[in-house]
């Protein structure tokens, strides 16, 4: 344990609430320049292709660099992910990559790691900005602009339908930053359009099966719907199954819009069952570890590092299919 980390724990034990106070006084923990690192990666879940692709990218890059990667899977539980971060702190990892399950519980975990002298880099999702801040409590956020993703879907729909749509919105996990922001971006984009109405918005937990179940229920209540906006591909694919079971043609009777751009979903765009997808690229490994090395070298790291994302339409889906994750 380095002297600063030891001092932090000692004073925290004496003051009770000193952990947060000391962390604020210290600033972000330093990271020594070394040839190899022991790095934690606290994944939120592994139940869909996007997460599996993200994990593989992180593991592949760590292996290429010769770093030890301490990997955990929270299984969709914020409480388990908090415990995973605690375990990484106990193992004295050099740094932690964290894909937060939910914004508020993981903000506290970020601050705990920081107080222990371990820098944290957030991947894909953020934590509650009122509780933890980039450049103060964690190094940076690497990921997509979720508000912009939702806005792009809304703008495309507005243009394509000339401002006329009856919409069901399948929301991502309640309390997660992608769900919050993708909803905001989309709703901001269509606000003021009298001919565009969201008749229902319900949590599908970014899950294919739950997306299908929710869509089946909402279709019964709103049989006149002609647009489904799903916050990710998994829910969009689940919605397609529900639409087909109800005798409707996805992509024609009901437009299907999504975010992520996995290969299975992009193939559905090429087949005409999904109308539009904004990409959210999961291949974080190279950028994540490059940022870690830059931080150790003392370089200035921006508060947000935004990944470039493409869009998939019927016109380009076949051509871009091989490059989808």
UniProtKB/TrEMBL annotation:
It comes from the Bacteria. The keyword Ligase does not apply. Keywords: Signal. Residues 39-300 form the Periplasmic binding protein domain. This is Periplasmic binding protein/LacI transcriptional regulator. It is found in: Cell envelope. It holds the Pfam family Peripla_BP_4. Its main location: other. Belongs to the bacterial solute-binding protein 2 family. GO terms for cellular component: cell envelope. GO terms for molecular function: carbohydrate binding.
């Amino acid at each position: 344990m380095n002297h600063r980390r030891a001092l932090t724990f000692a004073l925290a034990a004496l003051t009770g609430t000193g952990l947060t106070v000391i962390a604020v006084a210290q600033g972000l923990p330093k990271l020594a320049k070394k040839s190899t690192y022991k790095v934690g990666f606290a994944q939120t879940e592994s139940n869909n292709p996007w997460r599996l692709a993200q994990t593989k990218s992180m593991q592949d890059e760590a292996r290429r660099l010769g770093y030890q990667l301490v990997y955990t899977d929270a299984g969709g539980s914020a409480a388990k992910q908090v415990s995973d971060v605690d375990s990484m702190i106990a193992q004295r990892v050099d740094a932690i990559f964290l894909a937060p399950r939910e914004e508020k519980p993981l903000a506290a975990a970020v601050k705990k790691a920081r107080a222990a002298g371990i820098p944290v880099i957030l991947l894909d999702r953020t934590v509650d900005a009122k509780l933890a801040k980039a450049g103060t409590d964690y190094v940076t956020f690497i990921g997509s602009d979720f508000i912009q993703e939702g806005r792009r879907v809304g703008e495309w729909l507005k243009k394509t339908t000339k401002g006329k749509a009856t919409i069901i919105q399948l929301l991502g996990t309640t309390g997660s930053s992608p769900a919050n922001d993708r909803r905001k971006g989309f709703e901001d984009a269509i606000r003021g359009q009298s001919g565009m109405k969201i008749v229902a918005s319900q949590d599908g937990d970014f899950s294919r099966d739950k997306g299908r179940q929710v869509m089946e229920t909402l279709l019964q209540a709103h049989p006149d719907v002609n647009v489904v906006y799903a916050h990710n591909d998994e829910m969009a694919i689940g919605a397609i199954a529900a639409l087909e079971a109800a005798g409707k043609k996805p992509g024609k009777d009901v437009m299907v819009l999504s975010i992520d751009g996995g290969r299975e979903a992009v193939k559905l765009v090429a087949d005409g069952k999904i109308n539009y997808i904004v990409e959210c690229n999961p291949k974080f490994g190279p950028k994540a570890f490059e940022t870690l090395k830059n931080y150790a070298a003392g370089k200035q790291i921006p508060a947000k590092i935004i990944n470039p994302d493409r869009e998939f339409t019927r016109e380009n889906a076949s051509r871009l299919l091989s490059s989808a994750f």
